[in-house]
Amino acid sequence: MHNPFVLLTTRLLESLIKADNTFFVRQTYPRGKNQLDPLNKAAFLFTHYTDYSRAKTHYDTLDNDPNRFLYNINEREHYDKMFIAASQPEGFHIYSPVVQKPWKPTAPIAARIRNYINQKMGWNPGRSDAVKADLFVQFGELFITLKFGIHEVKLPLADIENF
C-alpha cells in the first residue's frame, strides 16, 4: 500500500499546535504498518484539527476502530501523550496526514492509474496527454482525484491500488 504521509515528530507536532491545532484524532493506519518488520507492532495516524466539531465528526466515523481516540491538547494528559506519540515509541509508527507537495504517483501507482482509466473510465488520453492526479485526505482515508480535459473523478486510492 502506498503511504505518502510523514512520520509525526515533536517538531511537526509543535508546528501544528502553533498553527492552532487543538484536537487530534488517532486511528489505526494499516498503510503505515510494515508487515515485514516483526518489531513493528502497529501504526497510527494522528489527524489535526482547529475545530472540535470537525474532529468529533472524524472520530465518530471510526466507530469500528478500537484504537480511535480524540485528543484535546488543552488537557495536560492528552498533551503529554501527544508528545510521547510524536517521539515514535519503539514498535510503533505514528504518522501525520501531511503530504509533501507536489505529490507525484510512484511508477507502480501511475501504471495502475493508466490501467484503471483505460478499463473503467472510457477516457482516451493519448501518449502526450496529461492526466492530472492529486491526493486528498478525508477522515484519515486517502482519495485520488483524476482529471483529464473536462473529465474529473474522485475515488478511494485503494480502488486504484486493488485494480
Would you mind describing this structure in some detail?
There is one protein chain. Strand 6 and strand 7 form a beta hairpin. It is elongated, with a radius of gyration of 18 Å. It has two domains: 5-99, no CATH class; 107-161. It has five helices and eight strands, in the order βαββαβαβαβββα. With 163 residues, it is of the alpha+beta class. The mean pLDDT is 91. The chain has helices spanning 10-18, 52-61, 76-86, 107-121, 157-161; strands spanning 5-7, 23-28, 42-49, 69-72, 92-99, 132-138, 141-148, 151-156.
Quick tags:
8 strands, 31% helix, three-stranded antiparallel β-sheet, five-stranded mixed β-sheet, alpha+beta, 163 residues, elongated, 31% strand
Short description, anyone?
This protein is an alpha+beta fold. It contains five helices and eight strands.
Helical stretch count? 5
SS class? alpha+beta
Sheet with the most strands?
5 strands, mixed
Identify the strand order in the major beta sheet: 1-5-3-2-4
Which segments are poorly predicted (pLDDT under 50) over 5 or more consecutive residues?
none
Question: Distance N terminus to C terminus?
Answer: 12 Å
Layout of secondary structure:
Blueprint: E1 5-7, H1 10-18, E2 23-28, E3 42-49, H2 52-61, E4 69-72, H3 76-86, E5 92-99, H4 107-121, E6 132-138, E7 141-148, E8 151-156, H5 157-161
Parallel strand pairs: 3-5
Antiparallel strand pairs: 1-5, 2-3, 2-4, 6-7, 7-8
